[in-house]
Amino acid sequence: MDKYFEKVRNYLLELNCEIVTEHEEDGVFVVNKPEEGIANLVLGCADPILIMEQFIFEIEEDSLSVFKQLLMKNRDIVHGAFVLDESGHKVIFRDTLQIENLDLNELEGSINSLSLLLSEYANEIIKLSSKELVS
After folding, report:
1. What Pfam families does this protein map onto (predicted)?
2. Which residues constitute the domain of residue 27?
């Protein structure tokens, strides 16, 4: 696992990500890339995959409308998808990549996908996360 951790760490640095936290024992990084809208992106090296997750917003109450819009947007996301956490209230961007054959371009593509999602879908995310829309 150490070789994968170091590999991912080097890629993150090459992509100019700010590594806020890293725990080699757990294989976890937390990174920021503020110019891309990325804050507290968690990357976990869990051989055979690299898991990437970023909290997007919280849903106070179940809403068929919100869930439907998120699922429809998943179709447009290049890499990754919107998912709900175990509580069913936190909307998270999640992507998984094969860690053994991971290369810089692949990791960059996933980070760029999240950045693009955040920039193009920002207004909708704000609306979906507002209490007025949730019903």
Report:
1. CesT_Tir_1 (PF22550)
2. 2-129
